[in-house]
Amino acid sequence: MNRKPTRRQVVLGAAAAVTATVLGTGSRAVAAPTVGSADDCGERYQGYRDIDRDRPYAHYMAERTAPAPTVVTDTYAGPPLSPDAVPGFGSITTDLAPSGYSTVETGYGQRADGVTFVAVRTVMPRVTAAMWDWWFGWHSTEAARYKLWHPDAHLFAALAEDRTALDIPDKAKYVGNTTFVDEYVGPKLQQLGIGFRDPIAHGFDVPSDQTIVFGRVGSSIAPVDLGWLAHQVRPVDGGAEMRSRFHMNLRGLHVPDVKQAACAVRRGASVDPTDLVLGLDLARDLMLHCGQEMNHLAGFLPELYAEFRG
């Protein structure tokens, strides 16, 4: 009996087909000026190079990423949430309400329908929501800036549109924009395109002293969306707290950025259609990665903001 393909099979099949096309385009584009030179595409590398040490923000560069908070490392060492304890994506706007807390503030798990979930709460002394809105508009214009966030795992970053010099609010510099990153999540290299969306348009309640960074996570090579992320920053005594959420394996299709896809291939493609199925190991590693990078950057974000916000 013939069976209709599932949505997952359709998405993965489309990803495989278009990935093959892009990979072919990328391999031919080595000599094609329309794609750009290697300098235009940038290089992927770990740590910092001498040229990075000449950046005006070099004094914030660390050789290693600060450890994640104890609650994250303890959760990492423990079991995942049971499938029935994992909240659905449909509840994210109430999960990240302006006040109160959820049943799960730090944890990871996978629902019976295959959707993986990550939650991380990070306490950030001296930090404000405005600092994070500035950071998300500023950090992806240079790979060295992105590395400040997680010097162990962040390898490359670029923006679809550099808006840093525009006289617009900090939030407008990243909402509606896409950042393309190469980074390790655990042992696995990921090449991602994160399209930032307006959280209020999605239904979030965002008071003026808070922010929510909301984005669609996808592959930077294949035209496949992988899930959603949201980082809520709200004030607490002495600073702020960030409540991060990831809901993965919520797939869709998007129009690929052909130039960025070809550049990602040039840097060394990591894409594999099987990587588009994100299991518990990835969720566990993502929880640790998020705990590390948010805690690390929060340690010097107030000084960085004061020096470069302008």
TrEMBL record:
It holds the Pfam family DAPG_hydrolase. InterPro entries: DAPG_hydrolase, TAT_signal. Residues 1-31 form the signal peptide. It comes from the Bacteria. Its cofactor is Zn(2+). Residues 95-306 form the DAPG hydrolase PhiG domain. Coiled coil: none annotated. Keywords: Hydrolase, Metal-binding, Signal, Zinc. Belongs to the DAPG/phloretin hydrolase family. This is DAPG hydrolase PhiG domain-containing protein. It comes from Rhodococcoides yunnanense. The lineage of its organism: Bacteria, Bacillati, Actinomycetota, Actinomycetes, Mycobacteriales.
